[in-house]
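Recall the central idea of this unit: under ordinary conditions, the amino acid sequence of a chain determines the structure it adopts. In this exercise we apply that idea directly, starting from the sequence alone.
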Amino acid sequence: MIEMPKQIISNLYRKTLGIIRRYLPDYLPRLGRISGIVCLCSFAATVVITVSHINMNMEGLGDLSDFEIGRVAERDIIAEHSFSYIDENATRLRMEAQEHLVPAVFRYFETVADESLQAWNAFCDYADSLIEEGLSQSSVLLALQAEYPARFPTGIIAAYLSAPDRAVFREYGLEVLSALYAKGVYTMELTDSTLYNPDMVELLFTRSGRTERERVIRSTITMLTNAEDSITQFSEPLPSGFRDLAAGLLRPFVRENVLFSPEDYQMRVTEAMERVSDVVIYIERDKPIIRKGFIITAQEMLDLEAYYSTIPAMNPSNIIGLVLLFALLYSLFIVLQDKLIQHRKLTVSEKNLFFILIFLYIAGAAFAKGLVPILSPFPVSLFFPTALMVMIPAVFMGPLFALAMAMAFPLSACLAGFFDIPSLLFALTSGLAASVVLRKAEKRMDIIKAGLIIAAVNCVAVIVVQLMWTTHFFGSHIMLLGAALNGIVSGMLFLGVLAPLEHALNTATTFRLIELSDLNAPILRKLFTAAPGTYSHSVMVATLAEQACQDIGANALLARVGAYYHDIGKMDNPNYFAENQTNYNRHDDIAPRLSATVIRSHLKIGVEKARSLGLPEDVINIIAEHHGNSLITWFYNKAAKQEEQVNSEDFSYPGNPPRSRESAIVMLADITEAALRTLKKPTVARMEKFIQQLFDSKVEHGQLALSDLSFRDLEIIKKAFIKVLAGYYHSRIEYPKTTSESKATSESKEGNG
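Accordingly, the structure predicted from this sequence is:
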């Protein structure tokens, strides 16, 4: 029968993919080194092109010394790209003007008024006591002058003593002084109007336990120099006899109760300076900066100097420093990642991927900065997919490593001079968002959602940049659109490169494991047909391993997939394994040494099949390690009865003890599920004791020494197994104390690999 075109294409695709999966892993290290060299050459070419571009620009502009304020320009200078700069002189004038608008700040003190009123009362009491003693007016006058020397104007005390209504002067004085202090007597003369606000001052006072502020018109305040005028003003409603004497009589008792506060004033100045925005000059593309035949003004010279500054400079020391920076970053993360970040050593492919990413990032930043000067009004990182560069390590190397890259990539570009502060802020925000949005992603559509989330975060970052670094939203709609597209395009690009990277790196990503966990996969369907007992056993082991990994915080998805595939090597000889046998045991007809060889071979066959299928290396490790190097005791003991000398290595599995928690849990789930099938009437208590014996046996023989499982983890794993198995066997029996169980066999039955 002639195959349909669709079938032909499908078969061709499967064969091509099989060849890639078979041969690509052997060449990955070499390809990684070659790709690193290619990236290094690309970066060098980018630097050369950038320098050439700069030189061409400099040749067109000429030397800056050819232009001088007051000279006639000999040629035109036209802006080849839009740019902006801060006018330092105008900004300084704006700040000085704003500082002079800040009012002088004073604080009100109530205790001064109380002391002054007490002094006035003391004066009145002393005068009254002298008069009550019957002294003559001359004696009273002399006594008061002795007590208050040079305090009163000439004749004031005499007029006070001879006033017919002197008895009520005390109350009048208290009333006037209270009114004067209520308004405030300020401590200094504000004669220099250039230092402070010329129209008003600020008064701070405490009311009901909190500080309040009040603006006071400067011309209405009272100071010691005009205190007498203020006293006369306050005494207007009082009798003329007191009003004529009030200024001279009360002036000695007036003190400042509103004091100038340098600290509060400086705080107001600082607040005012923080609100002052820079004076930004915007120069549009194709606008003449210098016009031939015209005298160069100071402003034009500033524009020209700013235009020169927008052209990036590159010299040999920058290039050498840049290369050393890359080498430092690469070495630092390779050395520290297994201890501080990743808690494991990176594979050769992952190291090559990291090397490629960092060079692509810096080269891309250099390209955007040096070859696209039109982007100068905007953050350069706005048009650079930082999120894409972080999403790749987030999926392939873990979120902690991606978090480190989200900070290292933008900082390295900033140190290299390709990112300014706004670009650094935007890139950091975008990268940090990308490092966390894929944490729980399990479907390809989650990547698109992650791109939308990154787009929203990017828009917020753009708004922050606009508020912090510009006086108005210059091109805000363009920046917001670019920020949104940055996140969306990063997600779409990552979706496009994910599948090729998964196969190239052969990494157990969440998305790859989800695909492999489909029980309708051809290899699992074939396992179901060829070895139904092994298939059922694998599904049960997967359930046990997944539950245990969830409880201890390990990778449950990896354990489930590893359990599905851990016995695919049994498909070639299914009838030699106990779970696929009925009433006939083939091992009864062959020597125990040959039986052990058949049992051992399913590991090697399983690894070969896994590699031909292109399974991730972590899954292959589970297949190779799920028996460790333990002894096949049934056939070893049988051979020992038939032979005089038996080498235990001939009856041991050829693998290594599990080196990961997931691999160790699959080992424990495998032996538990197989052994429990030999247990009659499995109550919860009997299962618990039986499983504990199995665990103790594995610990005793060192099969868990490399897996980082603690005794606490083993207890949690045991409880997880019992929870699953109790439901599977529908156990409803309480926990009675049972007699001692027979020791759990290391193999449930002969040939039960």
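The two ends are 42 Å apart (CA to CA).
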